[in-house]
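note to self: dont lose this again. the chain is below, predicted strucutre after it. 100 aa total, dont forget to put it in the shared folder this time
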Amino acid sequence: MKDTFTVTKADIVKAVYERVGLSKAESASLVDDLFEIIRKSLENGEDVKLSGFGHFVLRNKKERIGRNPKTGVEIMITPRRVVTFRASPIMKNRMNGIRD
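---
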């Protein structure tokens, strides 16, 4: 089993700070602005494509019957919008050890 590693917003801010040369405050602001742009685009029903990385797609799920796994009681799951992520072919290749 592989070890898991979670990348936090603080990790991204630190990477921007170290690689780009902005101050820590500027790096944090840049990362916050990027996430805000992505969030607002998704809220407005727009998909978000980050070239070479992937595509955040907004999907509408219909109302459906679900089941409580502990009790087995059926419940109605309300319709909702969900965000899915699809890695780009470049990202998929890199995850599989294939370099361009």
